């Protein structure tokens, strides 16, 4: 018997039920029941489902009770009779393959066997327990929608569909994971999204061969350009409004069942400094906020290295009173400046990670202990100089402004610290040039990571380091949108 014959259903109800029992073994979540019609013994059926995934009341009301009480007048095509006139469930699918039947039942469907027929019905009866829609803790905003994605793919897709009410919004489903059979959905707006990028994304997804996909992070790592790069070239967010905004610009989103993080491609470097709230507040304030985030990125990565370079190699550039103060604070400390800086930054990252992993009621206590006790004790014990504590504190605060690029800033900061410790400002300049060259050659799905829009006038910079008023945002980005026209304001003001 070949593999295809093994997966075929039998015409015997008893044989099919015994096969299912054999497959599931001693699994106590498997629930099975056989029953027949009150008027005729010719209608004998059996169902099986997984407890905890289905609505038992719906199964009883829409499947079992109608079949038992149905009127039978001698029809020979019993499956058609049950499907068209008896079963009241909305979604019914006919299936003849046992493997597909088992996969659907494991996803929350109920399978119905009919004695004398080698076919089965798959009836939608899902009733999962899921998290309610709430604001994401990592992307909280003052103004704007508070909704966030959940772990249910259909709920997430509905949040997108509710905001973009157009027939051009397309959903393409597929499965990844030989064992988990994780459902994913590509979302894009037809006529806006670039077909070349869409084709490249489909090709990369088709090459993923894994036994399990439990979160969108699996896919994000597999499809990114330059997999070992410290810069991420695939975006992600938990906010439906942000995803909708990116879809309307021509990007493509990937929704993964079981993950609240939705992926977007392509992803540009400037997106790390943009937030959804920038578009809900006046453009002047949105632009200022972006400038602050960009400045914070350079400060959090460069300030420690610059301090080390000044103190170690270029003391003549420090004002005399400040140099005397730093020298006095460093007297008696056992380590060189670069070691002090590296140690304190590592200690801060340990404290930060501990606060994130600890229960919320303990986080505040740990932060107080880490900041006050450890910081003050190390200075008083002459283990670390006071200026180092100030520099580390300022570095940590500016790092909080750029949560999307936090990991990258940590690695860059350590690289610049090492370079400045050996070469001073020359090392920093060398590292900065190498980083810029690397960023200029990096791409995200064929789009330059640092993209320069060649649109006429100011359209190329209206939504990059600044957020221009809406009447200037007339065009979508040229690198990915087919239909570039976004709005057509005739004047700067809608009303006078």
User: Rough shape?
Assistant: elongated
Structural class by SSE content:
alpha+beta
Helix content: 40-55%
Strand order of the largest sheet: 1-2-4-5-3
How many extended strands?
A: 12
Supply the number of helical segments.
16
How many separate domains? 3
Radius of gyration: 30 Å
Uncertain regions: pLDDT < 50 for 5+ in a row?
A: 1-5
| Overall residue-averaged pLDDT value | 85
Determine the strand fraction and express it as a percent band.
Answer: 5-15%
Topology as H/E string?
Answer: HHEEHHEHEEHEEHHEHEEHHHHHHHEE
Strand count, sense and barrel status of the largest sheet are: 5 strands, antiparallel
Instruction: Please give the alpha-carbon distance between the first and last residues.
Output: 80 Å
Short account of what is shown:
The protein is 44% helix and 12% strand. It is of the alpha+beta class and 496 residues long. Helix 12 (337-357) packs antiparallel against helix 13.
Describe the structure.
The protein has helices at residues 3-6, 13-24, 56-69, 78-86, 98-106, 153-161, 195-206, 216-223, 240-249, 283-312, 320-330, 337-357, 360-380, 386-399, 406-423, 425-441, and strands at residues 30-36, 44-50, 92-95, 109-114, 120-124, 169-176, 182-189, 235-237, 252-256, 262-265, 443-444, 447-448. By secondary structure, it is of the alpha+beta class. It has three domains: 3-124, no CATH class; 137-267, no CATH class; 283-444, no CATH class. The strands form three sheets. Strands 1-2-4-5-3 form a five-stranded antiparallel beta sheet, with helices on both faces. A five-stranded antiparallel beta sheet has the order 6-7-9-10-8, sandwiched between helices. Strands 11-12 form a two-stranded antiparallel ribbon. The longest helix is centred in the middle third of the chain and has 30 residues, at 283-312. It starts with a helix and ends in a 48-residue tail after the last strand.
């Amino acid at each position: 018997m070949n593999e295809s014959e093994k997966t075929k259903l039998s015409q015997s109800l008893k044989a099919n039920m015994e096969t299912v029992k054999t497959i599931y073994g001693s699994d106590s979540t498997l629930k099975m029941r056989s029953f027949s019609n009150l008027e005729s013994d010719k209608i004998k059926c059996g169902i099986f489902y997984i407890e905890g995934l289905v609505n038992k009341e719906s199964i009883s009301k829409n499947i079992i009770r109608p079949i038992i009480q149905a009127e039978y007048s001698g029809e020979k095509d019993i499956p058609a009779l049950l499907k068209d006139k008896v079963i009241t469930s909305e979604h019914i699918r006919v299936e003849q393959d046992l493997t597909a039947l088992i996969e659907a039942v494991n996803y929350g469907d109920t399978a119905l066997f009919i004695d004398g027929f080698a076919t089965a019905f798959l009836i939608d009866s899902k009733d999962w327990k899921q998290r309610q829609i709430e604001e994401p803790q990592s992307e909280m905003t003052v103004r704007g929608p508070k909704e966030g994605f959940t772990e249910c793919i259909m709920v997430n897709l509905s949040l997108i569909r509710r905001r973009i009410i157009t027939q051009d919004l397309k959903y393409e489903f597929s499965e990844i994971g030989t064992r988990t059979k994780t459902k994913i959905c590509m979302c894009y707006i037809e006529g806006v999204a670039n077909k070349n990028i869409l084709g490249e994304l489909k090709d990369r997804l088709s090459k993923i061969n894994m036994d399990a996909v439990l979160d969108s992070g699996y896919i994000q790592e597999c499809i990114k350009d330059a997999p070992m790069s410290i810069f991420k070239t695939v975006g992600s967010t938990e906010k439906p409004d942000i995803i909708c905004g990116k879809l309307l610009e021509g990007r493509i989103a990937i929704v993964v069942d079981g993950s609240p993080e939705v992926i977007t491609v392509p992803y540009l470097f400037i997106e790390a400094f943009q937030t959804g709230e920038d578009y809900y507040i006046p453009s002047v304030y949105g632009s200022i906020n972006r400038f602050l985030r960009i400045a914070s990125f350079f400060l959090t990565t460069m300030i420690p290295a610059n301090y080390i370079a000044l103190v170690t190699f270029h003391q003549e550039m420090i004002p005399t009173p400040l140099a005397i103060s730093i020298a006095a604070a460093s007297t008696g400390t056992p380590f060189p400046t670069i070691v002090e800086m590296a140690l304190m930054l590592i200690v801060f990252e340990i404290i930060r990670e501990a606060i994130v992993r600890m229960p919320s009621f303990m986080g505040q206590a740990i932060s107080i202990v880490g900041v006050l006790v450890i910081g003050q004790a190390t200075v008083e014990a002459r283990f670390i100089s006071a200026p180092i504590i100030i520099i580390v504190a300022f570095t940590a605060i500016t790092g909080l402004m750029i949560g999307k690029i936090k990991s990258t800033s940590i690695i860059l900061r350590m690289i610049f610290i090492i370079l400045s410790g050996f070469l001073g400002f020359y090392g920093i300049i060398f590292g900065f040039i190498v980083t810029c060259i690397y960023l200029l050659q990096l791409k995200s799905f064929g789009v330059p990571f640092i993209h320069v829009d060649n649109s006429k006038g100011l359209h190329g910079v209206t939504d990059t380091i600044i957020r221009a008023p809406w009447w200037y945002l007339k065009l979508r980005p040229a690198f990915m949108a087919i239909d570039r026209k976004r709005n057509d304001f005739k004047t700067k003001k809608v009303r006078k």
